[in-house]
């Protein structure tokens, strides 16, 4: 038996070459698919895998399992624990950044910076792998996600801001960055001007139109679902919103039509959101939905032969654990005892909260039996009826009280109440409702076996992504070319920053009889006092109010000569 196992291992090494490799030796590929399950700790993966195996005895492994190859240390520029903005930003730009920063050089913090940061470069936009692939290699680019599109992770790929919450700065950048395919959430966040720009440049645009997305044949498309984020996969109405797997397949179908190849980022956005809520049902089911999307990407890559796939979270979240002190003797519990109750849930914590507010109080216990597999006990029912967010409570709002109710049940939102209720039925525990600093898993597929094996930093992962496109070492050159200060670009010229009707300032530059009007958060420059002629750039322009500076391509100056 042992000889047989050794022989099989040798066969794998012979016929599936795998090499831990330096970036300069990575053989470039035509297409790159980066898969990010936001906020996914390794324990989340383990619990999701066990749940799948329990529910489907013939599926003991995940689609990504054969490609697990290492770990990645993710961090901010000045702190070991980061949020999605600086952690994905580092994957995309190769530069660590600060909490809340979207692909933007951080303000230096000399006493705490993990690596020395240049204070003179604070707030400079940083070129991303996606932008570099478009500019240097003519690649098409796409984004797929389940959050709203200007949210941190998709924004990190195609926008720049020191404040991740400034959607009014981020959304137009993403529209003007000429992404071939965008599928995800955020209908209300697409500005009218941005939608007009997309339509005028040949894009199909669908808002809450699943059939439209499915039947569209245009290689350029935006399809958005939900006013803000999309639903959790378990709560999703399949007649209204596509799965992450379907969105991934649709994006690949379109992007693969581009002769120069493509870059696609796919985010399982709401694993992180469920982790913040300490909802093990939302975490595991959305991760399994993400893994099915990985299966679609890997299936294409193996068939295509010119595509690399990288699967990596941006950070951990929640300190989730299978096994918790309040669950005595959990180490002797069977698979049935550990996972049966978890398998009965048909809605996430958020889904249960919404459902209970949609039905009469008299139907509450029936609802819990159907969607959670249990009835509320006296204490749980009392806590629900006294909860401030329960609309159909028989107790008037002014008479509700936490007297005699376990504080852990009563406090927080209705979603938090449902999360604690779910968790109480399991042997799963949490240490926090925030991000955590452990390394995250890394999985990779390369058609010729050039994968990053072992331990890596987030900076090193960026180097690998660049190497896959043959642009290793090129991002810094693009930073200097495309994100130069207007004071340097137009030194010796007459210029003025003026207010505009759109609310964003406009940089007006005059030289001899020529005038340029430079519009921030777009790729548009207009000429003349009336701005009738439009010039389209291959890079977006960013205005930073902190230093009253426009960052733009040096080549813009040529339009004055």
Task: Please provide a written account of the structure.
This protein is an alpha/beta fold and 561 residues long. The chain is built from 20 helices and 24 strands. A hairpin with a 4-residue loop joins strand 23 and strand 24. Helix 13 (349-356) crosses helix 17 (414-424). It starts with a helix and ends in a 9-residue tail after the last strand.
Low-confidence stretches: 1-19
Q: Assign a percent range to the helix content.
A: 25-40%
What gross morphology would you assign? globular
End-to-end separation: 77 Å
SS-derived structural category: alpha/beta
The average pLDDT is 94
Instruction: State the helix count.
Output: 20
Question: Which value, in Å, is the CA radius of gyration?
Answer: 25 Å
Based on DSSP secondary structure assignment, what is the total number of beta strands?
Answer: 24
What oligomeric assembly is this protein in? Answer: single chain
Query: Per DSSP, what share of the residues sits in E-state strands of 2 or more residues?
Result: 15-25%
Largest sheet: 10 strands, mixed
